[in-house]
Input
Amino acid sequence: MVTSVAARVAKVYCAANSSFALVKASDEQNQQSQTAATSDELYSWGATKEGILGRIISSKEIASPSPAKVEFPEDVSISDGRLEILQVSVGESHAALLTADHKVLCWGSNSKGELGLGDTENRPEPSLNILAEGAGTTKVSCGNSFTFLISGLNEIMIAGNLPFAVQTEQGEEQDFIATF
Output
């Protein structure tokens, strides 16, 4: 018996103009697979603005009303060859997800550096967040034009443009990392 995609939706994430559905791989699927374990899947639909849906869409389309699968780079699977998605967060024009092996993938608008990729180029497809690399990220949260990451050491890392200034005692702006 094959379980339908709709029956396997574990969570739905919504923003103002876009939505995502996380579909967890079932134990049944993994048992039936003769080759590799089955990965979790993410589906997106809504406005196509600045690549928020995480997939290549014709520049003529302003919306994608039907859910379609987001494809991930092959280098983000965990050791057993499958992708396990722990968390998804959606901002105004960008999104991020956290994998079981603590990798963070981001896509969409990057005009303020909110994807944590070291540049300000928009990404219509998921890209590895370099800010999170090696940090053992445990949580991710997208805001309007920024992304918060919490490391395994309980440090808060922020990519993008905060709605407030973070300055040192000398009045200089710097990357914000707080330890709790």
